Amino acid sequence: MLRFHAAAFAASMSALSRMTAFIALDEWDSVEDSEIEKVVADIEKAVKELPHSRAIPLQIERIHNLLNMGADRKSVSLLLRELHENILAEMSGSWFLVIPDYQRHFYEQHFPLFGVEVEEAFPEALFDIAAAGRCLALGESTACVFHLMRVLEKGLHQLAREVDVPMGERIEYEQWHVVIDQITATIEKMKALPKSPEKLHRLQRYSDVAIEFRLFKEAWRDHVAHSRARYDSQEAARIWRGVRDFMRSLATARGDTAEQG
């Protein structure tokens, strides 16, 4: 995966350009070897992840060798100018996508996008949470919603297991409406059991969550799963927030239930 930081690249190319300008100004002797070495090292780092031919690293290697051998400045300066021109020429053949700064965290993901609680409670959903984040950052809004529905599905299956829906591994292949109906039917059966404040609280939570899953299904899941809808960036961001907050509430409630149990 290409990670191109434009600011670092622009700064390095600007420094390289200034070095080549000394050639035209005939002020090359005023430049210290350490300055040249730093510019070359920065360029090497900046272009490392960029698409380029083998010629670029070979040129950088030649410059390093000439500096180590104490070659005359004219030879080094000519190679620097050639390197500058070749990098620009090769860059002109590539296209780059820009991720706005406010969306970088969706792509870089240095911290759990849905929070630590969701990460710990639903580890099987992490793949799709990460994919949804990348799609959101890249403007692939419909794909983002698709992955978010897969995240919700992990929560739905976990709820079914929590209320002991008798579906076993078959649950992975069932339609949402079948699973939700089974959850609702199981909750109704649980209501006939001896009552207690804890049981009433738990049944109310199960019922509320089942209703919310049905709403998610009818609002988005069915449409994106059957290619009946497309979403723009604003809609995807709104659905992202809704799914994130819902999964957080599921994770918190699951922890509370485990403590009570």
Please give a structural write-up:
There is one protein chain. By secondary structure, the chain is mostly helical. It folds into 2 domains: 6-91, no CATH class; 113-260, Four Helix Bundle (Hemerythrin (Met), subunit A) (Up-down Bundle). The chain is built from 11 helices and no strands. Helix 3 packs antiparallel against helix 4, helix 8 (141-162) runs parallel beside helix 9 (176-190) and helix 9 runs antiparallel to helix 10 (197-225). The protein is rod-shaped. The model has no long low-confidence stretch (mean pLDDT 86).
Largest sheet: none
Low-confidence stretches: none
Tally of domains: 2
Category by helix and strand content: mainly alpha
Give the end-to-end Cα distance, rounded to a whole number of Å.
45 Å
Quaternary state of this entry equals single chain
Cα-atom radius of gyration: 29 Å
Going by CATH, the architecture of the largest domain would be Up-down Bundle
Instruction: Quickly count the helices.
Output: 11
Helix content: over 70%
Order of helices and strands: HHHHHHHHHHH
Shape: rod-shaped
- Beta-strand content bin: under 5%
CATH level 3 topology of the largest domain? Four Helix Bundle (Hemerythrin (Met), subunit A)
